[in-house]
Structures are given as structure tokens and as C-alpha cells.
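S., here's the first fold you wanted:
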Amino acid sequence: MTDSSDPAAAVRSMMDQWLTLSAAVAEKTLQPVVGTPAPADVATRADIAALSDRLGRIEALLVALAGAAINRSGDGADATAGAFVPDAKIGARPMADLSKITEHMNVIGADGVHVGTVDKVEGDRIKLTKDSSSHTHHHHFISGGLVAEVEGNDVRLSANGDVAVTFEEEA
């Protein structure tokens, strides 16, 4: 109950009652039609990078297991040549030797799609030429952790081209 001598308090009380009633009406009438809102379940860049890293470790373990299976089969093939050999840190995959990467090499996704052209290596990142980037006014970088192998004039990534470009970092 409000004091009739304070009109502002009476208005506040009526507004509170109106808000409470309108919320109850909206809940009863709209929720069956609209449904309960789902929480935002969108992967972040960090989520995708972590998933890519996990997939890379799984891939490396599969290579190691395949090599061990071939060696046990006794067919004489050396399946461990160039294959990942697990160490005490299960799932570890050594980073590719970035010192083999030189200027103007092609950066290729795991699916064979051209991602860019190497300008140079800076630390643990590959700097792409401006003209090979989607934004020609500045350089983009690819993490060295995405490099699966360096072969001939190609830097092959462990991620498909369309996924690798989502990991590009701007200068």
C-alpha cells in the first residue's frame, strides 16, 4: 500500500505492478511461440585454434600408430622414416623447420588451395606478401604451428586453405 500523500510513490508502485504483470503475460503468451532463447554457442578463434592443435596431435598419433603397425607386419618397409615418434609428452608434434622457408614460396592448404606467397619468416610466423593477401594494403601472417611440411617451393599447411585464412593475423 502506498501513501496517498506522495504521488511519486504511487506512480512508482503502479509502474512496478505494471512491469511485473506485463512480464508474466509475456512469459505465458510469448514463450510457447518463441521458445526459450538458446545460449550463444559460437566458436571463438581460440576455440578453433585449440581444435586445430588437437586434430594435429591426433593426426600425428595416427601416423605413429600406422608406422608401428607396418613395422610389426614384417614387410621390411621402414614406415618410421619421417614419421612422428611420440615422446614422453603424448600427442606432441614437433613444429616444422621454419628455417627451410624462403621468400616467394607458395603457401598451400592441406587441400591444395593456394593461401598466399611467403614474404619472409618473422619469429614463429610466416609473413605473406601484400599482393597475396585478401587486403592488399597490409601484410598478413600465418602461424608457424600450422606448417605441416616444407617441400620444394611449397609450404604445406596442416589446415585446409579456407580454414587457414581464418587464422591469418594482421600486421
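And the second, which I think is the more interesting of the pair:
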Amino acid sequence: MVRTKRCFLKRLDQRVAIITGAAGGLGRATAAQFVREGAALGLIDIGDCQNLIQELKSIDPQARVIALQVDVTDEEAIAKAINEVITAFQKIDILVNIAGVVSHGNSSDVTLAEWQRVLNINLTSTFICSKAVLPNMRANGYGRVISMSSILGKNGGNPRPWINPEEQKKAGNVAYGVSKAGINALTFYLAKENAHHGITVNAIAPGPVASNMTTNFPQTLKDLIPVGRMGKAEDIAEAVTFLAAESAGFITGEVLDVNGGSWMD
């Protein structure tokens, strides 16, 4: 019997994607997955992405990637960055809003300044970046907008202070949770506004993901994750890729839970 070599189609072949917060853990994992799937990338981060570009080139030496050091809360700078990506690659097919900050503090402790900082970086930046790319997507009749929400935008927070007050001290984060709930609402509105243009708008709500930012996550809360482990950045990147693909065109206005069973709705 003659065995023929199978040809696997790359899910994002010929697509152009922008990833914000590209230098962080979720951004890097998503960028690597997108390169493997054939996408050209515009990497946006307030930090330097040159090391990330080298990592991506090691995956695919022919990868088409540009990096733009931009503050995602600066509407004028974002508009300029979007135009640079269009100039380089002629279009934008996919936007992945990952840029954001973590925050700790319950409703009694968080300051107004911290509240405003978190909502500005997490929620307002998602609006700014989405608004900036949508005209090009509408003109092309195709688009995918995927934003990073969180389980904390749905469940009122992981801690159980009535059982263990220490959980609240280590994992209370009301400003962060509210910013992510706002991303959910923004997703619903943009999905309805843009569906007839061939654009889908979705969000992903991860549960706790192992990273430098979650090293102090209470063991008592880790033990409550049904699958028995915290998430990995690659788990989230795979979900992003699924929603970014053309085959997910009938999914819009969805907040996809990727949390190991920690929250089910």
C-alpha cells in the first residue's frame, strides 16, 4: 500500500492579526500559535517585543511580523499603529485584545485611583483598539475581534471570605473583575453591531493561569479546580486560535469559558 503525505491546512493562512499585550505570557503564547497557523502579525505592547520576534522567527524563519511599542490607552497612538499594520500587510483580519494589568484589593481597600487605572488599561483600551480596527474590517467584509475577559468577570471573585478570610487578602480583585465584566458587555454590543459586516466579536474568560502573577494564588482555591490543575498560556492561545479561524464564523457574542470547570454557565 502506498502511503501519501497528508497536507494540513493552516487555520490562519493569509490572515493578518494584531495582538495587544504581545510581550506578556498570554500574548507570547498566542503569537507563537498564530505564526504556526500562518498569520502575519502586528505585535503591540508598551514594552519591547524584539525578543519575541526572534522567538517567532525560530518557529518560522519566513514569519511576517512587525512590532509596535505603543500605549494601548493612547487613542491617537493606536490609530497610528493600526495604519502602520495596514501599510505593512494591506489589511487587518483579526484583533486579539490581551493588553491588561492585574490588580488586588476588595471593595473596602481599592482606591479610586487604582479603580480608574485598571478600568482604563483593561476596558477602555479594548474599546479603543476595537474601534480602531473595525473600519478596515467592515470595508473588507471580514473580521475577528477576540478580547481577554476572565472568570472574575462572571463569578464575583474566587475568594470565599466567609470560609477563609485569607483567600480574600490574597486573591480579592474587584477592580479587575469589573473591568473584565465590562469587556463581556462590550463584546455583546460589538457583536450585534458588526455581524452583518462579516465580523465576529467574542471574548475568552480564563480561569487561573499559572504565571509569575499567580505564584501566590491560594492552594485552597487551586484545589477547587475540577480538572486538577491551573491553566497554561497555551490553553488560552488554542481557544483564541479557534475563535480566530474562518471555521468559527457562526460564533459571535460568546464569552468562552476556559477554566478547567471552575465556573460553568
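Why I say that: The chain is about 40% helix and 15% strand. The two ends are 49 Å apart (CA to CA).

Talk tomorrow,
H.
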